[in-house]
Design goal:
6 strands, Arc Repressor Mutant, subunit A, about 150 residues, 3-stranded antiparallel beta sheet, about 40% helix, alpha+beta, globular, 5 helices, binds zinc ion, single chain, 3-stranded mixed beta sheet
């Protein structure tokens, strides 16, 4: 599945770090490798993935700091999960998600036309007493056939 096909590849990631005067550290590289693999993940999930790979020493706190820093630089994007855990998204362009309730995972829906149509309709609406900060569209799903693990 090429769900992260638009994410910055490792070379582009290294260049982004240099552009922001950040060192290309093994920790930052390991986090990006994990994010390319996972697509959407919490700091815990990224940390577990790096530990499984076993080549880089990290803590959840250091991973969280890297994820947050990359999000502030616009390399990743924040995403809320239903458990109120902070998730990070390796894709920063506007897109919707399928949210699989069986394993709490996200899959990108890369249909910018549909997203823009929904966004345009919503941004024309007034919600009394509220201002819209962001539009985050999750389509709640479960697999129609058993997923291969
Ligand atoms: Zn996404």
């Amino acid at each position: 599945m090429d769900k992260n096909s638009k994410a910055p590849a490792m070379q582009a990631f290294r260049e982004s770090l240099r552009k922001h005067n950040l060192k290309v550290t093994p920790q930052r590289i390991a986090v990006h490798e994990a994010m390319l693999h996972l697509g959407h993940a919490s700091a815990d999930m990224v940390t577990d993935h790096i530990k499984e790979e076993g080549n880089t020493r990290v803590t959840v706190a250091s991973v969280y700091n890297i994820l947050t820093q990359m999000t502030l630089l616009g390399i990743y994007r924040h995403r809320m999960s239903d458990s109120n855990k902070m998730f990070f998204d390796v894709n920063t362009f506007n897109h919707m998600h399928l949210y699989d309730t069986t394993d709490s995972s996200y899959v990108d829906v890369n249909d910018e036309d549909l997203f823009e149509e929904i966004e345009r309709k919503i941004s024309g609406r007034r919600f009394r007493g509220y201002k819209v900060d962001a539009i985050d569209i999750n389509i709640i799903v479960h697999p129609s056939t058993r997923k291969k693990r």
